[in-house]
Here is the input.
Amino acid sequence: MARFLGLDASTQSLSGLIIDMDTGTVCANHSVVFGERLPRFHSPKGCLVHEDPRVKHSDPLMWVEALELLLGDLVKAGVDLGSVRGVSGAGQQHGSVYLARSFDTVGAWSTDRPLRDQVQPLLSRRTSPIWMDSASSAECAEIARAVGGDERVVAITGSRAIERFTGPQIRKFYKDSPADWARTCEIHLVSSFMASLLVAATAPVDLGDGAGMNLLDLGTGTWSRDLLDATAPGLGQKLRAPVPSTTRVGVIADYFVKKYGFTPHTPVIAFTGDNPSSLVGMGATRPGIAVISLGTSDTVFAAMAAPRTDPRGYGHVFGNPAGGFMALACFANGSLAREEIAHRFGLDWNAFADAILTRTRPGNAGNLLLPYFVPEITPRLPAPVVRWFGSATFVDGHDPFAAARAVVETQALSLRLHSRWIGEDMDPILVTGGASKNPGILRILADVFQARIVPLQVSNSSALGGALRAAQAVGGTAWEELARRFSAPADHLAEKPDPATRAVYEQAGRELERRLNEILV
Ligand code: ADP
Ligand code: XUL
Here is the structure.
Protein backbone atom coordinates (compact mmCIF):
# COMPACT_ATOMS: atom_id res chain seq x y z
CA MET A 1 0.00 0.00 0.00
CA ALA A 2 1.68 3.29 -1.06
CA ARG A 3 0.41 6.10 1.13
CA PHE A 4 1.84 9.58 1.61
CA LEU A 5 1.16 12.07 4.41
CA GLY A 6 1.02 15.84 3.91
CA LEU A 7 0.93 18.29 6.82
CA ASP A 8 0.02 21.98 6.78
CA ALA A 9 0.87 24.20 9.74
CA SER A 10 -1.28 27.18 8.82
CA THR A 11 -2.28 30.24 10.79
CA GLN A 12 -5.28 28.85 12.64
CA SER A 13 -4.87 25.09 12.38
CA LEU A 14 -2.61 22.15 11.66
CA SER A 15 -3.94 19.74 9.03
CA GLY A 16 -2.88 16.27 8.01
CA LEU A 17 -3.96 14.55 4.80
CA ILE A 18 -3.07 11.07 3.53
CA ILE A 19 -3.32 9.96 -0.09
CA ASP A 20 -3.47 6.36 -1.24
CA MET A 21 -1.72 5.83 -4.57
CA ASP A 22 -3.31 2.44 -5.17
CA THR A 23 -6.89 3.64 -4.97
CA GLY A 24 -6.26 7.27 -6.01
CA THR A 25 -8.17 8.52 -2.96
CA VAL A 26 -7.64 10.75 0.04
CA CYS A 27 -7.97 8.35 2.94
CA ALA A 28 -7.54 10.77 5.85
CA ASN A 29 -8.06 14.53 6.13
CA HIS A 30 -8.06 16.00 9.61
CA SER A 31 -7.34 19.34 11.26
CA VAL A 32 -6.53 20.50 14.75
CA VAL A 33 -7.83 24.07 15.21
CA PHE A 34 -5.52 25.89 17.63
CA GLY A 35 -8.21 28.14 19.12
CA GLU A 36 -10.45 25.17 19.93
CA ARG A 37 -8.00 22.49 21.00
CA LEU A 38 -5.19 24.50 22.55
CA PRO A 39 -6.88 27.29 24.54
CA ARG A 40 -3.98 27.52 26.98
CA PHE A 41 -1.96 29.27 24.23
CA HIS A 42 -4.45 32.16 24.27
CA SER A 43 -4.45 32.31 20.47
CA PRO A 44 -8.10 32.05 19.37
CA LYS A 45 -7.13 33.15 15.84
CA GLY A 46 -3.74 31.42 15.86
CA CYS A 47 -1.69 34.26 17.32
CA LEU A 48 -1.17 35.98 20.65
CA VAL A 49 -2.89 39.23 21.57
CA HIS A 50 -0.43 42.13 21.92
CA GLU A 51 -0.94 45.71 23.08
CA ASP A 52 0.58 46.93 19.80
CA PRO A 53 -1.88 45.77 17.11
CA ARG A 54 0.97 45.57 14.57
CA VAL A 55 2.69 42.83 16.57
CA LYS A 56 1.48 39.32 15.72
CA HIS A 57 3.39 36.44 17.25
CA SER A 58 2.56 32.80 17.93
CA ASP A 59 4.01 30.39 20.44
CA PRO A 60 5.95 27.76 18.45
CA LEU A 61 5.21 25.22 21.19
CA MET A 62 1.54 25.47 20.12
CA TRP A 63 2.57 24.02 16.75
CA VAL A 64 4.55 21.27 18.50
CA GLU A 65 1.56 20.31 20.66
CA ALA A 66 -0.75 20.47 17.66
CA LEU A 67 1.48 17.99 15.83
CA GLU A 68 1.12 15.49 18.65
CA LEU A 69 -2.64 16.08 18.88
CA LEU A 70 -3.05 15.63 15.13
CA LEU A 71 -1.06 12.38 14.95
CA GLY A 72 -2.85 11.12 18.08
CA ASP A 73 -6.25 11.93 16.51
CA LEU A 74 -5.34 10.08 13.31
CA VAL A 75 -4.26 6.99 15.25
CA LYS A 76 -7.43 7.16 17.41
CA ALA A 77 -9.50 7.34 14.23
CA GLY A 78 -7.95 4.04 13.15
CA VAL A 79 -5.46 5.42 10.59
CA ASP A 80 -2.43 3.14 10.23
CA LEU A 81 0.50 5.57 10.03
CA GLY A 82 2.73 2.53 9.42
CA SER A 83 1.39 2.44 5.87
CA VAL A 84 2.78 5.93 5.13
CA ARG A 85 5.75 5.73 2.71
CA GLY A 86 6.76 9.37 2.78
CA VAL A 87 5.93 12.64 4.55
CA SER A 88 6.14 16.26 3.46
CA GLY A 89 4.24 19.39 4.26
CA ALA A 90 3.98 23.13 4.50
CA GLY A 91 3.87 26.02 6.92
CA GLN A 92 2.37 29.48 6.91
CA GLN A 93 4.98 31.57 5.12
CA HIS A 94 7.47 34.08 6.58
CA GLY A 95 7.02 33.16 10.29
CA SER A 96 10.30 32.33 12.05
CA VAL A 97 11.54 30.24 14.99
CA TYR A 98 14.79 30.98 16.85
CA LEU A 99 16.96 28.32 18.50
CA ALA A 100 19.78 28.62 21.02
CA ARG A 101 20.59 24.95 20.46
CA SER A 102 20.50 23.38 17.04
CA PHE A 103 18.07 20.59 16.21
CA ASP A 104 21.22 18.74 15.17
CA THR A 105 22.18 18.40 18.86
CA VAL A 106 18.96 16.53 19.68
CA GLY A 107 20.06 13.08 18.53
CA ALA A 108 16.75 11.47 19.40
CA TRP A 109 13.57 12.73 21.07
CA SER A 110 12.83 10.81 24.27
CA THR A 111 9.46 9.06 24.39
CA ASP A 112 9.35 9.60 28.17
CA ARG A 113 8.35 13.25 27.80
CA PRO A 114 6.08 15.19 25.46
CA LEU A 115 7.87 16.76 22.51
CA ARG A 116 6.92 20.23 23.73
CA ASP A 117 9.06 19.83 26.88
CA GLN A 118 12.05 18.82 24.75
CA VAL A 119 11.70 21.62 22.20
CA GLN A 120 11.17 24.37 24.77
CA PRO A 121 14.80 24.39 26.05
CA LEU A 122 16.10 24.70 22.48
CA LEU A 123 14.40 28.06 21.89
CA SER A 124 16.24 31.37 22.13
CA ARG A 125 13.02 33.31 21.62
CA ARG A 126 9.73 32.37 23.24
CA THR A 127 7.50 33.56 20.41
CA SER A 128 7.58 33.53 16.62
CA PRO A 129 6.66 36.57 14.54
CA ILE A 130 4.17 35.43 11.89
CA TRP A 131 3.05 36.75 8.50
CA MET A 132 0.39 39.01 10.05
CA ASP A 133 3.04 41.08 11.86
CA SER A 134 3.56 44.57 10.44
CA ALA A 135 5.85 46.07 13.07
CA SER A 136 9.10 46.06 11.07
CA SER A 137 8.70 49.09 8.76
CA ALA A 138 11.85 50.77 10.07
CA GLU A 139 13.86 47.59 9.44
CA CYS A 140 12.49 47.29 5.88
CA ALA A 141 13.69 50.82 5.15
CA GLU A 142 17.11 50.11 6.70
CA ILE A 143 17.61 46.92 4.70
CA ALA A 144 16.55 48.56 1.43
CA ARG A 145 18.85 51.52 2.08
CA ALA A 146 21.81 49.27 2.90
CA VAL A 147 21.62 47.36 -0.39
CA GLY A 148 20.89 50.34 -2.63
CA GLY A 149 17.12 50.74 -2.65
CA ASP A 150 13.93 48.73 -2.99
CA GLU A 151 14.47 48.11 -6.71
CA ARG A 152 17.65 46.21 -5.84
CA VAL A 153 15.86 44.15 -3.15
CA VAL A 154 13.21 43.28 -5.77
CA ALA A 155 15.86 42.42 -8.37
CA ILE A 156 17.61 40.00 -5.98
CA THR A 157 14.73 38.50 -3.98
CA GLY A 158 11.58 39.05 -6.12
CA SER A 159 9.93 41.28 -3.49
CA ARG A 160 10.54 44.64 -1.87
CA ALA A 161 11.59 44.57 1.78
CA ILE A 162 8.23 43.69 3.35
CA GLU A 163 7.24 43.91 7.01
CA ARG A 164 6.06 40.31 7.37
CA PHE A 165 9.02 38.80 5.49
CA THR A 166 11.55 37.00 7.63
CA GLY A 167 14.60 39.20 6.98
CA PRO A 168 13.08 42.42 8.36
CA GLN A 169 11.67 40.41 11.30
CA ILE A 170 15.13 38.97 11.99
CA ARG A 171 16.63 42.46 11.91
CA LYS A 172 14.02 43.68 14.39
CA PHE A 173 14.85 40.82 16.76
CA TYR A 174 18.57 41.56 16.48
CA LYS A 175 17.97 45.25 17.27
CA ASP A 176 15.38 44.76 20.05
CA SER A 177 16.98 41.78 21.82
CA PRO A 178 20.73 41.77 21.12
CA ALA A 179 21.49 39.28 23.91
CA ASP A 180 18.92 36.77 22.64
CA TRP A 181 20.20 37.34 19.12
CA ALA A 182 23.72 36.49 20.28
CA ARG A 183 22.38 33.24 21.83
CA THR A 184 20.62 32.29 18.62
CA CYS A 185 22.47 29.68 16.57
CA GLU A 186 19.76 28.55 14.16
CA ILE A 187 16.75 30.18 12.52
CA HIS A 188 13.84 28.30 10.97
CA LEU A 189 10.78 29.09 8.97
CA VAL A 190 7.57 27.46 10.25
CA SER A 191 7.99 24.94 7.41
CA SER A 192 11.57 23.89 8.21
CA PHE A 193 10.75 23.92 11.96
CA MET A 194 7.97 21.36 11.45
CA ALA A 195 10.19 19.20 9.24
CA SER A 196 12.98 19.39 11.85
CA LEU A 197 10.60 18.13 14.56
CA LEU A 198 9.81 15.10 12.41
CA VAL A 199 13.43 14.16 11.69
CA ALA A 200 14.89 15.24 15.09
CA ALA A 201 17.63 17.12 13.21
CA THR A 202 18.04 20.39 11.34
CA ALA A 203 15.91 20.41 8.19
CA PRO A 204 16.95 23.19 5.78
CA VAL A 205 14.60 25.81 4.33
CA ASP A 206 13.42 25.00 0.78
CA LEU A 207 13.66 27.37 -2.19
CA GLY A 208 9.86 27.78 -2.37
CA ASP A 209 9.41 29.19 1.13
CA GLY A 210 12.96 30.62 1.32
CA ALA A 211 11.97 33.16 -1.34
CA GLY A 212 9.62 34.74 1.24
CA MET A 213 12.48 35.88 3.45
CA ASN A 214 13.96 38.88 1.56
CA LEU A 215 17.23 36.97 1.80
CA LEU A 216 17.27 34.53 -1.12
CA ASP A 217 18.96 35.39 -4.40
CA LEU A 218 16.42 33.97 -6.85
CA GLY A 219 18.98 33.90 -9.64
CA THR A 220 21.43 31.63 -7.82
CA GLY A 221 19.20 29.85 -5.27
CA THR A 222 21.60 30.85 -2.47
CA TRP A 223 21.40 33.36 0.38
CA SER A 224 22.40 36.80 -0.88
CA ARG A 225 25.57 37.99 0.84
CA ASP A 226 24.46 41.64 0.54
CA LEU A 227 21.06 40.96 2.10
CA LEU A 228 22.51 38.80 4.89
CA ASP A 229 24.89 41.65 5.75
CA ALA A 230 22.13 44.26 5.53
CA THR A 231 19.85 42.24 7.81
CA ALA A 232 21.90 41.25 10.86
CA PRO A 233 25.53 40.49 11.72
CA GLY A 234 26.38 36.80 11.73
CA LEU A 235 23.08 35.85 10.08
CA GLY A 236 24.81 33.65 7.48
CA GLN A 237 26.02 31.32 10.26
CA LYS A 238 22.49 30.87 11.62
CA LEU A 239 20.94 29.66 8.35
CA ARG A 240 21.54 26.37 6.53
CA ALA A 241 21.94 26.52 2.77
CA PRO A 242 18.49 26.43 1.11
CA VAL A 243 17.57 23.27 -0.82
CA PRO A 244 15.29 22.39 -3.74
CA SER A 245 11.78 21.53 -2.52
CA THR A 246 12.15 17.90 -3.62
CA THR A 247 15.09 17.26 -1.24
CA ARG A 248 14.90 14.40 1.24
CA VAL A 249 15.80 16.03 4.57
CA GLY A 250 15.90 12.87 6.71
CA VAL A 251 13.82 10.00 8.00
CA ILE A 252 11.05 10.04 10.56
CA ALA A 253 12.43 10.14 14.13
CA ASP A 254 12.09 7.07 16.34
CA TYR A 255 9.81 9.07 18.63
CA PHE A 256 7.08 9.05 15.96
CA VAL A 257 7.72 5.38 15.17
CA LYS A 258 7.27 4.37 18.81
CA LYS A 259 4.46 6.74 19.69
CA TYR A 260 2.34 6.85 16.54
CA GLY A 261 3.30 3.69 14.64
CA PHE A 262 5.19 5.13 11.65
CA THR A 263 7.45 2.66 9.85
CA PRO A 264 11.14 3.17 10.73
CA HIS A 265 13.16 5.09 8.07
CA THR A 266 10.08 6.66 6.43
CA PRO A 267 11.55 9.51 4.34
CA VAL A 268 10.70 13.13 5.08
CA ILE A 269 10.84 15.57 2.14
CA ALA A 270 11.62 19.28 2.66
CA PHE A 271 8.60 21.27 3.82
CA THR A 272 7.66 24.41 1.86
CA GLY A 273 5.39 27.46 2.28
CA ASP A 274 1.64 26.98 2.37
CA ASN A 275 1.15 28.85 -0.91
CA PRO A 276 3.82 26.97 -2.92
CA SER A 277 2.38 23.77 -1.46
CA SER A 278 -1.12 24.81 -2.48
CA LEU A 279 0.14 25.41 -6.03
CA VAL A 280 1.03 21.70 -6.10
CA GLY A 281 -2.18 20.60 -4.37
CA MET A 282 -4.30 22.53 -6.87
CA GLY A 283 -2.51 20.89 -9.79
CA ALA A 284 -1.32 24.33 -10.91
CA THR A 285 2.44 23.83 -11.14
CA ARG A 286 2.41 24.71 -14.86
CA PRO A 287 1.63 28.26 -16.09
CA GLY A 288 -1.92 28.95 -17.33
CA ILE A 289 -3.91 28.06 -14.21
CA ALA A 290 -4.38 30.75 -11.59
CA VAL A 291 -5.38 30.01 -8.01
CA ILE A 292 -7.25 32.16 -5.50
CA SER A 293 -6.91 30.96 -1.93
CA LEU A 294 -9.50 32.27 0.53
CA GLY A 295 -7.97 31.44 3.90
CA THR A 296 -7.18 33.68 6.86
CA SER A 297 -5.45 35.81 4.24
CA ASP A 298 -6.59 35.81 0.63
CA THR A 299 -3.91 35.10 -1.94
CA VAL A 300 -3.83 34.92 -5.71
CA PHE A 301 -1.02 32.98 -7.32
CA ALA A 302 0.12 31.21 -10.46
CA ALA A 303 3.14 29.40 -11.83
CA MET A 304 5.16 31.75 -14.04
CA ALA A 305 6.51 31.01 -17.48
CA ALA A 306 9.25 33.60 -16.86
CA PRO A 307 10.08 35.50 -13.67
CA ARG A 308 8.40 38.92 -13.61
CA THR A 309 8.07 41.34 -10.70
CA ASP A 310 5.24 43.65 -9.66
CA PRO A 311 5.94 47.25 -10.76
CA ARG A 312 3.66 48.49 -7.93
CA GLY A 313 5.86 46.63 -5.43
CA TYR A 314 3.09 44.65 -3.71
CA GLY A 315 3.49 41.22 -5.33
CA HIS A 316 6.08 38.51 -4.77
CA VAL A 317 8.00 35.83 -6.61
CA PHE A 318 8.41 32.54 -4.74
CA GLY A 319 9.89 29.20 -5.79
CA ASN A 320 7.59 26.75 -7.54
CA PRO A 321 8.18 23.39 -5.79
CA ALA A 322 8.01 21.68 -9.19
CA GLY A 323 10.82 23.96 -10.48
CA GLY A 324 10.91 27.57 -11.65
CA PHE A 325 8.89 30.32 -10.03
CA MET A 326 5.41 31.36 -8.96
CA ALA A 327 3.86 34.80 -8.58
CA LEU A 328 1.76 35.73 -5.57
CA ALA A 329 -0.13 38.66 -4.10
CA CYS A 330 -1.36 38.46 -0.50
CA PHE A 331 -4.28 40.33 1.10
CA ALA A 332 -4.36 40.44 4.90
CA ASN A 333 -8.04 41.39 5.07
CA GLY A 334 -9.33 38.08 3.72
CA SER A 335 -11.50 35.87 5.93
CA LEU A 336 -10.78 38.20 8.84
CA ALA A 337 -12.67 41.02 7.10
CA ARG A 338 -15.52 38.76 5.93
CA GLU A 339 -15.85 37.42 9.48
CA GLU A 340 -15.89 40.96 10.85
CA ILE A 341 -18.86 41.87 8.64
CA ALA A 342 -20.66 38.55 9.23
CA HIS A 343 -20.19 38.94 12.97
CA ARG A 344 -21.15 42.62 13.09
CA PHE A 345 -24.41 42.00 11.21
CA GLY A 346 -25.24 38.63 12.80
CA LEU A 347 -25.02 36.68 9.51
CA ASP A 348 -23.98 33.04 9.47
CA TRP A 349 -22.20 31.84 6.30
CA ASN A 350 -25.47 30.68 4.72
CA ALA A 351 -27.10 34.04 5.34
CA PHE A 352 -23.91 35.73 4.07
CA ALA A 353 -24.16 33.77 0.80
CA ASP A 354 -27.87 34.45 0.56
CA ALA A 355 -27.28 38.20 1.01
CA ILE A 356 -25.07 38.09 -2.08
CA LEU A 357 -27.03 35.66 -4.19
CA THR A 358 -30.62 36.79 -3.63
CA ARG A 359 -30.77 40.09 -1.72
CA THR A 360 -28.34 42.34 -3.61
CA ARG A 361 -27.23 42.94 -7.21
CA PRO A 362 -23.80 43.15 -8.90
CA GLY A 363 -22.32 46.59 -8.30
CA ASN A 364 -24.24 46.81 -5.01
CA ALA A 365 -26.27 49.84 -6.16
CA GLY A 366 -23.07 51.90 -6.07
CA ASN A 367 -22.29 51.14 -2.42
CA LEU A 368 -18.59 50.67 -1.75
CA LEU A 369 -16.69 49.66 1.36
CA LEU A 370 -12.98 49.90 2.05
CA PRO A 371 -12.81 46.86 4.37
CA TYR A 372 -9.33 47.11 5.83
CA PHE A 373 -10.02 46.12 9.43
CA VAL A 374 -6.36 45.24 10.00
CA PRO A 375 -3.30 46.85 8.35
CA GLU A 376 -3.31 45.75 4.71
CA ILE A 377 -0.48 44.22 2.71
CA THR A 378 -1.98 44.78 -0.78
CA PRO A 379 -2.31 47.72 -1.17
CA ARG A 380 0.04 48.73 1.60
CA LEU A 381 -1.94 50.37 4.44
CA PRO A 382 0.00 50.66 7.70
CA ALA A 383 -3.16 51.26 9.77
CA PRO A 384 -6.74 49.97 9.47
CA VAL A 385 -9.02 51.87 7.05
CA VAL A 386 -12.77 51.17 7.14
CA ARG A 387 -14.83 53.61 5.03
CA TRP A 388 -18.34 53.33 3.68
CA PHE A 389 -19.42 55.15 0.54
CA GLY A 390 -22.97 55.02 -0.81
CA SER A 391 -26.59 55.31 0.24
CA ALA A 392 -27.53 56.61 3.69
CA THR A 393 -28.59 53.25 5.18
CA PHE A 394 -25.39 51.68 3.93
CA VAL A 395 -23.17 54.40 5.32
CA ASP A 396 -25.08 54.32 8.62
CA GLY A 397 -24.33 50.62 8.79
CA HIS A 398 -27.96 49.44 8.79
CA ASP A 399 -27.85 47.33 5.66
CA PRO A 400 -26.46 43.86 6.45
CA PHE A 401 -27.03 42.46 2.96
CA ALA A 402 -25.29 45.30 1.16
CA ALA A 403 -22.45 45.09 3.70
CA ALA A 404 -21.90 41.38 2.94
CA ARG A 405 -21.77 42.05 -0.80
CA ALA A 406 -19.61 45.14 -0.31
CA VAL A 407 -16.78 43.42 1.52
CA VAL A 408 -16.54 40.64 -1.07
CA GLU A 409 -16.86 42.94 -4.09
CA THR A 410 -14.01 45.13 -2.89
CA GLN A 411 -11.88 42.08 -2.15
CA ALA A 412 -12.54 40.60 -5.60
CA LEU A 413 -11.87 43.90 -7.39
CA SER A 414 -8.67 44.34 -5.44
CA LEU A 415 -7.59 40.76 -6.25
CA ARG A 416 -8.15 41.55 -9.95
CA LEU A 417 -6.40 44.92 -9.83
CA HIS A 418 -3.37 43.60 -7.98
CA SER A 419 -2.88 40.44 -10.01
CA ARG A 420 -2.70 42.06 -13.46
CA TRP A 421 1.12 42.21 -13.24
CA ILE A 422 1.33 38.41 -13.12
CA GLY A 423 0.49 38.48 -16.81
CA GLU A 424 -0.61 34.85 -17.01
CA ASP A 425 -3.97 33.68 -18.31
CA MET A 426 -6.62 33.80 -15.54
CA ASP A 427 -9.47 31.63 -16.83
CA PRO A 428 -10.27 29.23 -15.28
CA ILE A 429 -9.37 30.25 -11.76
CA LEU A 430 -9.17 27.48 -9.19
CA VAL A 431 -10.26 28.33 -5.65
CA THR A 432 -9.31 26.87 -2.30
CA GLY A 433 -9.36 27.81 1.41
CA GLY A 434 -12.12 27.89 4.02
CA ALA A 435 -14.23 30.53 2.25
CA SER A 436 -14.18 28.72 -1.13
CA LYS A 437 -17.16 26.75 0.20
CA ASN A 438 -19.26 29.91 -0.01
CA PRO A 439 -21.27 30.10 -3.27
CA GLY A 440 -21.91 33.84 -2.85
CA ILE A 441 -18.19 34.57 -2.80
CA LEU A 442 -17.57 32.37 -5.87
CA ARG A 443 -20.39 34.15 -7.75
CA ILE A 444 -18.77 37.56 -7.24
CA LEU A 445 -15.32 36.27 -8.21
CA ALA A 446 -16.71 34.80 -11.46
CA ASP A 447 -18.32 38.11 -12.44
CA VAL A 448 -15.44 40.37 -11.38
CA PHE A 449 -12.79 38.26 -13.16
CA GLN A 450 -15.18 37.26 -16.00
CA ALA A 451 -13.74 33.78 -15.61
CA ARG A 452 -14.90 30.34 -14.58
CA ILE A 453 -14.28 29.82 -10.86
CA VAL A 454 -13.65 26.20 -9.98
CA PRO A 455 -13.26 24.69 -6.50
CA LEU A 456 -11.46 21.36 -6.13
CA GLN A 457 -13.09 18.23 -4.76
CA VAL A 458 -10.50 18.10 -1.98
CA SER A 459 -10.22 20.92 0.53
CA ASN A 460 -6.91 21.52 2.33
CA SER A 461 -4.95 22.03 -0.87
CA SER A 462 -1.79 22.91 1.03
CA ALA A 463 -1.77 19.64 3.01
CA LEU A 464 -2.66 17.80 -0.20
CA GLY A 465 0.32 19.50 -1.85
CA GLY A 466 2.52 18.06 0.92
CA ALA A 467 1.25 14.53 0.27
CA LEU A 468 1.71 14.95 -3.49
CA ARG A 469 5.23 16.29 -3.04
CA ALA A 470 6.10 13.26 -0.92
CA ALA A 471 4.63 10.98 -3.61
CA GLN A 472 6.64 12.72 -6.32
CA ALA A 473 9.92 12.68 -4.42
CA VAL A 474 9.67 9.22 -2.86
CA GLY A 475 7.41 7.36 -5.29
CA GLY A 476 8.64 9.08 -8.46
CA THR A 477 5.14 9.83 -9.80
CA ALA A 478 5.08 12.71 -12.32
CA TRP A 479 3.42 16.02 -11.34
CA GLU A 480 0.86 15.79 -14.18
CA GLU A 481 -0.18 12.30 -13.14
CA LEU A 482 -0.56 13.38 -9.51
CA ALA A 483 -2.65 16.40 -10.51
CA ARG A 484 -4.89 14.29 -12.74
CA ARG A 485 -5.54 11.78 -9.98
CA PHE A 486 -5.84 13.97 -6.90
CA SER A 487 -6.61 17.58 -7.91
CA ALA A 488 -9.90 16.93 -9.66
CA PRO A 489 -12.18 19.96 -10.08
CA ALA A 490 -15.62 19.93 -8.46
CA ASP A 491 -17.29 21.01 -11.71
CA HIS A 492 -20.80 20.91 -10.21
CA LEU A 493 -19.77 23.72 -7.81
CA ALA A 494 -18.10 25.86 -10.49
CA GLU A 495 -19.46 29.35 -11.17
CA LYS A 496 -19.59 30.75 -14.71
CA PRO A 497 -19.32 34.50 -15.31
CA ASP A 498 -22.38 36.50 -16.32
CA PRO A 499 -21.19 38.70 -19.26
CA ALA A 500 -23.91 41.23 -18.42
CA THR A 501 -21.98 42.18 -15.27
CA ARG A 502 -18.73 43.03 -17.07
CA ALA A 503 -19.43 46.76 -17.50
CA VAL A 504 -20.68 47.14 -13.92
CA TYR A 505 -17.42 45.73 -12.57
CA GLU A 506 -15.24 47.77 -14.95
CA GLN A 507 -16.88 50.87 -13.51
CA ALA A 508 -16.66 49.56 -9.92
CA GLY A 509 -12.97 48.74 -10.46
CA ARG A 510 -12.26 52.33 -11.54
CA GLU A 511 -14.17 53.65 -8.53
CA LEU A 512 -12.18 51.42 -6.16
CA GLU A 513 -8.89 52.57 -7.69
CA ARG A 514 -9.96 56.19 -7.22
CA ARG A 515 -10.85 55.61 -3.56
CA LEU A 516 -7.62 53.72 -2.94
CA ASN A 517 -5.57 56.49 -4.53
CA GLU A 518 -7.17 58.94 -2.09
CA ILE A 519 -5.93 56.98 0.93
CA LEU A 520 -2.59 55.67 -0.31
CA VAL A 521 0.39 57.70 0.78
P1 ADP B 1 -5.98 29.10 7.13
O1 ADP B 1 -5.47 27.98 6.27
O2 ADP B 1 -5.40 30.44 6.80
O3 ADP B 1 -5.93 28.80 8.60
P2 ADP B 1 -8.58 28.28 6.08
O4 ADP B 1 -8.32 28.14 4.62
O5 ADP B 1 -8.73 27.07 6.91
O6 ADP B 1 -7.53 29.27 6.76
O7 ADP B 1 -9.89 29.18 6.21
C1 ADP B 1 -10.43 29.47 7.47
C2 ADP B 1 -11.47 30.57 7.31
O8 ADP B 1 -12.48 30.17 6.38
C3 ADP B 1 -12.22 30.85 8.59
O9 ADP B 1 -11.54 31.86 9.30
C4 ADP B 1 -13.60 31.31 8.10
O10 ADP B 1 -13.69 32.73 8.15
C5 ADP B 1 -13.65 30.92 6.64
N1 ADP B 1 -14.82 30.11 6.30
C6 ADP B 1 -15.11 28.85 6.67
N2 ADP B 1 -16.30 28.45 6.14
C7 ADP B 1 -16.77 29.49 5.39
C8 ADP B 1 -17.94 29.72 4.59
N3 ADP B 1 -18.85 28.80 4.42
N4 ADP B 1 -18.05 30.93 3.99
C9 ADP B 1 -17.12 31.89 4.14
N5 ADP B 1 -16.02 31.72 4.89
C10 ADP B 1 -15.83 30.55 5.51
C1 XUL C 1 1.88 34.94 1.77
C2 XUL C 1 1.37 35.16 3.15
C3 XUL C 1 0.27 34.30 3.69
C4 XUL C 1 0.82 33.23 4.59
C5 XUL C 1 -0.25 32.57 5.44
O1 XUL C 1 2.86 35.84 1.41
O2 XUL C 1 1.86 35.98 3.88
O3 XUL C 1 -0.51 33.75 2.64
O4 XUL C 1 1.54 32.28 3.85
O5 XUL C 1 -1.10 31.79 4.73
About this structure: Residues 27 and 431 are 22 Å apart (CA to CA). The radius of gyration is 22 Å. Residues 400-417 form the longest helix (18 residues).
